[in-house]
Design brief:
Layout lengths: L1 H4 L18 H16 L3 E4 L5 E5 L7 E6 L13 H17 L7 E5 L13 H7 L4 H6 L8 H7 L11 H5 L1 E9 L4 H5 L3 E7 L2 E9 L3 E2 L12 H18 L2 E10 L5 E2 L2 E9 L3 H21 L3 E10 L2 E2 L2 H13 L7 E4 L4 H5 L5 E6 L15 H19 L2
Parallel strand pairs: 3-4, 3-5, 5-15, 6-14
Antiparallel strand pairs: 1-2, 2-4, 6-13, 6-15, 7-11, 7-12, 8-10, 9-11
Helix pairs in contact: 3-13, 9-10, 11-13
Bound molecules: (2S)-amino(hydroxy)ethanoic acid and manganese (II) ion (MN) (2 copies).
Amino acid sequence: MWRDLLPLGRHSASRGYRRYAWTGADADCRAWFRAQAEARGLAYEVDRNGNQWAWAGDPADGDAVVTGSHLDSVPDGGAFDGPLGVVSAFAALDELRGRGARFGKPLGIVNFGDEEGARFGLACVGSRLTAGRLTVDQARRLTDGDGITLPRAMEAAGYDPDAIGPDPERLDRVGAFVELHVEQGRALDLSGDPVGVASAIWPHGRWRFDFRGEANHAGTTRLTDRRDPMLPYAETVLAARREAGLAGAVATFGKIAVEPNGVNAVPSLVRGWLDSRAADQARLDTVVAGVEKAAREYAAAHGVDLDVVRESFTPVVEFDHVLRDELTRILGTDSDLTVPVLGTGAGHDAGILSGRIPTAMLFVRNPTGVSHSPAESADEDDCVAGVLALADVLEGLACA
Ligand code: HGY
Ligand code: MN
Ligand code: MN
């Protein structure tokens, strides 16, 4: 399974993945998912938002146990973020069938579309739409860097954009969703455990800072005559690092777009995207407010206009305590694992669905902690431990 998925959407030069929503690489991954489902005789379906589902048993019986994750990636992402959860879901089903497990409830495997938001800027579009946490109108307005809207992109990929919307009937049939994911950090590496259970997800969001100045000639315009948006942008990047450090939070300007982006032209517009996350809402608010205040002062000092737009936001997620404790109980007895319970700053579909249905997460050790990079890795032994732990959890939750 892993070998078949590995080459799909991988960029030859960077060795990173470029599996963006509704592109050819996304279609290849979706074809892989469907093939895996049909090879196992699972009932395959695509929901109104393009999420893929594979069922053992009839979901109409209700109280289904669902596992899975996403297959899309950040620009030049790693091989494990998302795919490990989907491959492990199919492998855990194979393991359960090998054990002769009898399912007392429907078992579902899901691939949520557009989790990373790499193309349209909003994280977890597939799960947000399904959970009713993104309106149809907001979704239809999503636009990529080439001006292509989400509806046009879905149509080009052969999906009906007029079908998108909340799917309460589907979620009402799900009793629990468990997402396995490679850890994006080093907690398990430091504790020496192959597998962990999630406690919470930090509140986090994405803000777009548009610095509008005046295009001019780089060689002939006197410094005093310039309204150069690159300068307040640069000062704001440093302010973000300062504010995050003061608040014990994180803040990153990882994406920038410059117009006209010419070596010999003072820019007219610099767009910078801020990703900021903190252990609690108050701290996150302090950081973002501090960065925005500094940015406005810097922009004014350079005669530059500034607009700040919040493009994506996820409030703190406290995973369902009952399900979390059920996972640690099962893993403590059936897998003979001592599983640490750990928080994360990374967003996940399980976080979006949390509160709507009971959700939980299993983390698999990442020996370097590196993620959102081609260098992301996980040892095969730990991946196998993750599959066996997921199988034990699914057996404990779904089997008589
Ligand atoms: O950004 C995140 O935390 C996730 O990878 N979407
Ligand atoms: Mn990710
Ligand atoms: Mn992920």
